[in-house]
From TrEMBL:
Coiled coil: none annotated. Residues 7-343 form the Enoyl reductase (ER) domain. Belongs to the zinc-containing alcohol dehydrogenase family. Keywords: Metal-binding, Oxidoreductase, Zinc. GO terms for molecular function: oxidoreductase activity; zinc ion binding. Pfam families: ADH_N, ADH_zinc_N. This is Alcohol dehydrogenase. InterPro entries: ADH-like_C, ADH-like_N, ADH_Zn_CS, ER, GroES-like_sf, NAD(P)-bd_dom_sf. SMART domains: PKS_ER. Its cofactor is Zn(2+).
Length: 345
């Protein structure tokens, strides 16, 4: 079979790899039907995630069909169409018992495309398959479902829930990539008064408007005054960092009101300065987090019921074997207008 193999910083190749197979009784093997590329994959290729070593198959967002299951897998059958979660969960360690699956102590957490081979391949092994996959309703397409592998639960849990978005809030999202756009979709569930989105790319700001942003700004046009004008001079109630750079994190801390929350979603590869000399007196809450995916069943139910709409997120479609071209398109959103790129079997 073939997969997209990381060869070190800046290096990736679609090439022959060993077949996926059952290694543990709780494993399943799925045929990949739909897969996408995450901004985290770009961070890996930039060398920002040193735990990913050369030879690793990348990818952690996929929908597939079960082709083999281990003898301890009880909730899946061969032929089931499933969402493969970006987070694997043993289900029995302390953190899994608290539904913080991202911190699993027994070989789970974010492992796909990170510490084990991922899903940007023709087939993939899914550990802890009963707890790390979700059978899909017929009315949910694979294209829509794959948005729930990572970006919807990440934005909802690490951005909206950690940020404590409430009705009437002014919410600022810094970064209008797929995570930032998913933050708009899920923040709207809580009826904020204003959603302000900041990004460099005009195409992404247009997408943000379509998805419900009330105000869009480029970094060059950002002034604290623009946010204060919406908030009686206070600043934003919640600011979400959805880029993963020192500059954007530091910008977030300037836009939040006293007593507000900065929810960091982005993957950071470099240190950011925390200006405590200015922030200590402002009663701020700063949150970080790896998604736990405890919200995936709820989000899937809302998707099936038509309560959330992710159809605007996919902008480019490729065959699976065109994945290297898809990476090139995804990595240049300013030129290509790419949001999510979808690859199908």
């Amino acid at each position: 079979m073939k997969g997209l193999v990381y060869g070190g910083a800046g290096q990736r190749t679609w090439t022959e790899i060993p077949d996926a197979h059952i290694r543990d009784p709780r494993d399943a093997v799925i045929r990949i039907d739909a897969v996408t590329i995450c901004g985290t994959d770009l961070h890996i290729l930039a060398g920002d995630v040193p735990e990913v070593t050369p030879g690793r198959v990348l990818g952690h967002e996929a929908v597939g069909t079960v082709v083999e299951r281990g003898p301890a897998v009880t909730g899946l059958a061969v032929g089931d169409r499933v969402l493969a979660s970006c987070i694997s969960a043993c289900g029995s360690c302390r953190f899994c018992r608290e539904a913080t699956y991202g911190q699993c102590l027994s070989g789970g957490g974010w492992i796909l495309g990170h510490t084990i081979n991922g899903v940007q391949a023709e087939y993939a092994r899914i550990p802890f398959a009963d707890l790390s996959t979700y059978r899909l309703p017929r009315q949910v397409s694979s294209e829509n479902a794959v948005m729930l592998a990572d970006i919807l639960p990440t934005s909802y849990e690490v951005g909206v829930l950690n940020g404590r978005v409430r009705p009437g809030d002014t919410v600022v999202v810094v970064g209008a990539g797929p995570i930032g756009l998913a933050a708009i979709i899920t923040a709207k569930l809580f009826s904020p008064a204003h959603i302000v989105v900041i990004d460099k790319a005009e195409s992404r700001l247009q997408a943000a408007k379509i998805l419900g942003a009330d105000v869009t700004l480029t970094p060059e046009r950002v002034a604290l005054g623009a946010i204060r004008a919406l908030t009686q001079g206070l600043g934003a109630d919640v600011v979400m960092e959805a880029v993963g750079s020192p500059e954007t994190f530091e910008l977030c801390t300037t836009l939040v009101r006293p007593g507000g929350t900065v929810a960091n979603i982005g993957v950071h590869g470099k240190p950011a300065t925390l200006h405590l000399e200015d922030l200590w007196i402002r009663n701020l809450t700063i949150t970080t987090g790896l998604v736990d995916t405890h919200s995936t069943p709820r989000l899937l139910a809302m998707l099936a019921a038509g309560q959330i709409d992710v159809t605007q997120l996919v902008t480019h479609r490729f065959a699976l074997e065109e994945i290297e071209e898809a990476y090139d398109v995804f990595a240049r959103p300013g030129q290509t207008g790419a949001l999510k790129v979808l690859l199908t079997r």
